[in-house]
């Protein structure tokens, strides 16, 4: 049954990020992970680390006691004192069977993430599974579960709104900007070339905006971002004499004083009186708010976006119930798949045996008679024997799979 699956994990729900960091192993091929698997007699193991959890998914037939938690911590962190090891172990969660698989599926569907519905987790799990496999720690049981996990997570994303509606400030700001700046030739000025504007720039590229100028304190960083946007780079003080006007101004620097002062803003306007869109993603604001009553402007700032992010997050949360019921349904499907696979594996010797019987018949039992046949007759016998071989292999596999399916159907109905 599924009792062989277990999950040992440390997550943001029951431990601070600092503690989680202590159980991170640098490399999936690390001898520490091999040691852990060997010491605890795990048949297969997959280790994952994301920004808010570490987890050891493992397969082992037979009982698994709570004592393994301390042993696991001691193996991964032999350098820590016994008290420190115990402190980490006390915050770890050990789940078994269907509970372990359910939690694993919830992780893949990003139902247990800091921000619910981050699709990125599927890619991370896939990549980390590949590393674990390359390190030789996984086998058929985890391969089967991983395939099922990815299918389930995709189903959840397509059938629920768990990953819908943006919750990141930059994505929301871009969405808001699009409402008033839709012309891809609009004159866009970016002030700042740090992480935030770089992320914003990715949206500009994706949506085909082609008239972008980057202003930044260090011209090198401005140039880097401008290159990525196919735009122009200028130093920050060029804001004082820039004369080409603008439609949209996006400001995001780590300065603690306004970078876009009323005088600078007036210069940037170049006498234009149309309503401009200004996006200020800095904390504190980098656009002096005295411009608001003085000029026609649609002002987008973090404060308003935070509220929208909260509403969107609440929507995603409300989809959690649908996602949980998909997981409950899918657990039955996994039970069936797992059983079918065990049947397949237990019958894997049959094709070999049938082939051996065929070879014996052709070259030993009827060896002389077969050799005496002309080439045409030999070819026909070989074709017929090949046909029989395939049919003989298929019969027991089909029969046992059907029996298992019926048996599983009874179990599911009785639950
Ligand atoms: N990162 C996020 O996810 C995020 C999300 C929402 C809001 N924010 C806010 O956005 C702002 C920028 O964050 P970030 O993550 O993009 O920062 P960052 O990657 O550290 O980049 C900082 C940017 O600000 C410029 N800068 C720093 N001090 C300055 C000063 N005194 N005058 C003019 N320019 C200055 C830097 O110019 P150089 O290239 O010359 O160093 C660089 O372009 C912050 O207020 C932050 O709170 C960040």
Account of the protein in words:
With 415 residues, the chain is α/β, with parallel strands linked by helices. It has three domains: 2-164 and 315-340, Beta Polymerase, domain 2 (2-Layer Sandwich); 169-302, NAD(P)-binding Rossmann-like Domain (Rossmann fold), CATH 3.40.50; 348-392. The protein is 57% helix and 13% strand. The strands form two sheets. The chain has a six-stranded parallel beta sheet. The chain has a four-stranded antiparallel beta sheet with strand order 2-3-1-4, with helices on both faces. The longest helix has 40 residues, at 375-414. It is elongated and about 105 Å long. The mean pLDDT is 93. The structure holds NADP nicotinamide-adenine-dinucleotide phosphate. Residues 169, 192-196, 216-218, 221, 236, 252-255, 259, 281-283 line the site of NADP nicotinamide-adenine-dinucleotide phosphate.
Question: Could you describe the largest sheet, including whether it forms a barrel?
Answer: 6 strands, parallel
- Please tally the helical runs, counting DSSP H or I stretches of 4 or more residues: 17
Q: What is the radius of gyration computed over CA atoms, rounded to a whole number of angstroms?
A: 31 Å
CATH architecture of the largest domain: 2-Layer Sandwich
Strand order of the largest sheet: 7-6-5-8-9-10
CATH class of the largest domain: Alpha Beta
Number of domains: 3
Strand count: 10
Please identify which CATH superfamily of the largest domain we are dealing with: Glutamyl-tRNA reductase, N-terminal domain
- N/C terminus separation: 15 Å
Contiguous runs where pLDDT drops below 50 for at least 5 residues = none
Instruction: Give the names of the bound compounds.
Output: NADP nicotinamide-adenine-dinucleotide phosphate
Gross morphology is: elongated
Structural class: alpha/beta
Under CATH, the topology of the largest domain can be stated as Beta Polymerase, domain 2
Question: Roughly what percent helix?
Answer: 55-70%
What is the string of SSEs from the N terminus onward? EHHEEHHEHHHHEHEHEEHEHEHHHHH
Mean pLDDT: 93
Strand % is 5-15%
């Amino acid at each position: 049954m599924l009792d062989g699956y277990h999950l040992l994990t440390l997550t943001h729900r029951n431990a601070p990020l600092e503690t989680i960091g202590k159980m991170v192993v640098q490399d999936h091929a690390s001898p520490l992970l091999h040691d852990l698997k060997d010491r605890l007699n795990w048949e297969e193991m997959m280790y994952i680390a994301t920004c808010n959890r570490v987890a050891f998914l493992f397969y082992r037939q037979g009982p698994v006691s709570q004592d393994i938690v301390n042993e696991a911590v001691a193996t991964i962190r032999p350098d820590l004192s016994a008290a420190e090891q115990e402190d980490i172990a006390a915050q770890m969660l050990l789940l078994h069977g269907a509970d372990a698989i359910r939690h694993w599926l919830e992780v893949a569907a990003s139902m247990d993430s800091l921000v619910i519905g981050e699709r990125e987790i599927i890619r991370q799990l896939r990549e980390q599974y590949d590393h674990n496999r390359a390190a030789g720690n996984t086998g058929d049981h985890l391969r089967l579960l991983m395939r099922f996990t990815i299918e389930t997570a995709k189903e959840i994303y397509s059938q629920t709104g768990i990953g819908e509606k943006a919750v990141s400030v930059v994505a929301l700001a871009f969405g808001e900007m699009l409402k008033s700046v839709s012309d891809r030739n609009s004159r866009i000025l970016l002030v700042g070339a740090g992480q935030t504007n770089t992320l914003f720039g990715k949206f500009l590229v994706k949506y085909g905006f082609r008239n972008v100028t980057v202003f930044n304190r260090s011209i090198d960083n401005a140039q880097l971002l401008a290159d990525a946007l196919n735009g122009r780079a200028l130093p920050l003080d060029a804001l004082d004499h820039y004369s080409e006007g603008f439609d949209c101004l996006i400001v995001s620097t780590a300065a603690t004083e306004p970078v876009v002062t009323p005088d600078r803003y007036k210069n940037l306007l170049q006498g234009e009186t149309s309503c401009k869109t200004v996006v200020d993603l800095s904390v504190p604001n980098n656009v002096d708010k005295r411009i608001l009553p003085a000029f026609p402007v649609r002002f987008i700032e973090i404060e308003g976006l935070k509220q929208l992010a909260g509403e969107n997050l609440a929507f995603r949360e409300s989809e959690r119930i649908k996602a949980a019921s998909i997981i409950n349904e899918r657990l039955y499907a996994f039970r069936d798949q797992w059983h079918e696979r065990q049947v397949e594996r237990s019958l894997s010797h049959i094709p070999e045996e049938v082939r051996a019987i065929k070879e014996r018949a052709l070259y030993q039992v009827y060896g002389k008679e077969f050799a005496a046949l002309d080439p045409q007759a030999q070819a026909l016998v070989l074709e017929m024997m090949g046909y029989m071989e395939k049919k003989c292999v298929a019969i027991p596999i089909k029969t046992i799979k059907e029996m298992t399916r019926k048996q599983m159907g009874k179990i599911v109905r009785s639950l």
